[in-house]
Design goal:
alpha/beta, 11 strands, 4-stranded antiparallel beta sheet, single chain, 42% helix, 5-stranded parallel beta sheet
């Protein structure tokens, strides 16, 4: 029951340019417990993605500028957003349109006219798949699909590189990683090692960890490590 409630309270971003017919759908989703933010502008949508990732994106394939497939493909090509779950809303159930949406990277598609109960069922299926990919280490729950962690009652979102550094440290909790090793693991092969880059990301991670920042420790002249405990 708890898992079902957690899924239904998920954050959804809905990118569309339909000012009228979505009210019923969004109202139904909110009644089911989902938090829904609607965006009618690509730039505003991308701006919010950079600030906080949702659990799933509803992407309208009928955008007036024909941008639906392009947007879907672009999101999946970005490191920061490649794991973002996308439910694509097609104009019809024509196989060609559905194939194009899946090839662009959509995790699932639903055709108009949209039946609210089917939409909720598909959303919950996507979110359950996300949940099954989570990894728990001590008090950390790594959520790679959304580049976030759950710790205590807090869910914290990170940029792609911040998340990968934290994931590396959590998966090897108690081990010290030098700046050079972190660079080798996270940055592209052959990229020059820049300890300053690692330090800047560590500072940002600590800020986001808030009251849990003390778990990320600096080992003088050696590097960084994460301390975890059960529970």
């Amino acid at each position: 029951m708890k898992n079902s409630m957690e899924i239904s309270s998920s954050l959804l971003y809905y990118l569309t340019d339909d000012n009228y017919s979505i009210e019923y759908i969004v109202g139904f989703l909110r009644k089911e417990g989902f938090t829904v933010q609607i965006f009618y502008n690509d730039m505003e949508f991308l701006k919010h993605l950079s600030i906080k990732l949702p659990d799933c994106v509803l992407l309208d394939g009928s955008l007036a500028n024909g941008n639906g497939l392009f947007m879907c493909r672009s999101l999946k090509q970005q490191k920061e957003w490649r794991y973002l779950a996308i439910l694509y809303l097609t104009q019809s159930n024509q196989s060609n349109e559905l194939i194009q949406a899946f090839e662009a990277g959509a995790d699932d598609c639903i055709s108009r006219p949209i039946h609210p109960q089917e939409l909720v069922a598909r959303l919950r299926a996507i979110l359950r798949r996300q949940k099954s990919s989570n990894i728990q280490i001590g008090q950390f729950i790594l959520q790679p699909e959304s580049l976030s962690i759950q710790i205590g009652d807090s869910r914290i979102y990170f940029s792609w590189r911040e998340y990968k550094i934290l994931e590396l440290l959590v998966l090897h909790a108690g081990e010290v990683f030098s700046r050079a090793v972190i660079c080798q693991q996270i940055w592209k092969k052959g990229a020059p090692i820049n300890a300053r880059n690692v330090d800047v990301h560590i500072v940002n991670i600590r800020k986001k960890l808030g009251k849990y920042r003390s778990l990320l420790r600096t080992i003088r002249d050696k590097g960084y490590m994460i301390m975890v405990c059960d529970g």
